[in-house]
Amino acid sequence: MGLLDRWRKQQNSTNELHENSSSMYKQILEQVTSNEQEILQFLEFSSG
């Protein structure tokens, strides 16, 4: 009984953590994607 409750609590906190990290991950991904675009443009510019 106590173990199950603890497990449920852990699952809840894990879900919260996952939501937080996934939103952070999205932000990082957007940052990287925009940087990648700039880098590609720069490479095309410098090679062309």
Textual characterization of the structure:
This protein has 48 residues and is an all-alpha fold. It has one domain. It has one helix at residues 2-47. The N and C termini lie far apart (68 Å). 0% of the residues are buried. The mean pLDDT is 86.
Which helices and strands appear, and what pairs or packs with what?
Layout: H1 2-47
Q: How many distinct folded domains?
A: 1
What share of the residues does DSSP label as strand, in percent? under 5%
For the biggest sheet, the summary is: none
Number of strands: 0
Helix-strand string: H
Cα-atom radius of gyration: 20 Å
- Strand-pairing-aware structural class: mainly alpha
Residue share in helix: over 70%
Measure the end-to-end span: 68 Å
SS summary, helix count: 1
Low-confidence stretches: none
What is the overall shape?
rod-shaped
Keywords:
1 helix; mainly alpha; 48 residues; rod-shaped
Report a brief summary of the structure:
With 48 residues, this protein is mostly helical. It has one helix spanning 2-47.
